[in-house]
Amino acid sequence: MTSPIAGISPASLRGIDPTPLSGAVSRTDGASAFSELFEQAVNRVNQYQQTADTAVQRFLTGEDEDLHRVAMATQKAEVSFELLLQMKNKAVQAYQEMMRLQV
Fold it and tell me: Which of 21, 25, 64, 80 is most buried (most C-beta within 10 Å)?
């Protein structure tokens, strides 16, 4: 029985232009975009944590800070940190899955 998939000969590749399409993103641009996105997420989580810490300190020192605003700030910081942690876990999981692929 013959295979329904024919091999690719070098002669059939001569007409293919190896330059990427104009709308395509190169490998370094994609990696750069991902690292920038991840850096922005880390910075945002850090900002939420600092805001929550400031709110707690203001509340504990008796400054004009409402308890419900303190609770909201701490919950926002906690939820954003959990989301960042899950993003990191998914990125590591995807990387490990790609390393298991056989070429």
Answer: 80
